[in-house]
Design a protein that fits this description.
The chain is built from 7 helices and no strands. The protein is mainly α. The protein is flat, with a radius of gyration of 25 Å.
Length: 128
């Protein structure tokens, strides 16, 4: 059995710790807006933070972090809170209407079609 010195184990554990980079400004604004919307939805339903946190299986500080839009909270935690508020369908709609992605896909298909046409014309000439 391999035995490592305690300081080596500490160094390994420290290197394994998560180092979260701060989000891009647009992402930070989107998270803050999402958090505020979640908080307002909770208040409109007249649900306490303690009750929502309990139903979502988290602590009140984690719910508070979600409502502040802090980026270190897992997506699963956001999803649990949305489910508790009856808003999980909103999460399922993310990316469903991907206008930019569809335009990029159409452009790629058009370019692929244009690349195939010269080959077909060359085959037609060879058949003559």
């Amino acid at each position: 059995m391999l035995r490592l010195p305690f300081t080596v184990i500490l160094d390994i554990l420290e290197s394994m710790s998560r180092t979260a980079r701060p989000p891009l400004p647009a992402v930070a604004r989107a998270l803050a807006e999402l958090g505020e919307n979640i908080r307002l939805a909770r208040l409109r339903r007249k649900l306490s933070a303690s009750l929502v946190a309990e139903r979502a299986g988290m602590t009140r500080p984690t719910l508070r972090a979600i409502e502040r839009g802090e980026p270190g909270v897992t997506l699963g935690s956001y999803a649990n809170v949305l489910h508790c508020l009856g808003l999980e369908k909103d999460l399922a709609g993310v990316g469903s209407d991907d206008e930019l992605g569809r335009k990029l896909q159409d452009a790629e298909l058009g370019a692929a079609k244009a690349r195939k046409q010269p080959r077909q014309n060359a085959r037609a000439r060879d058949d003559r």
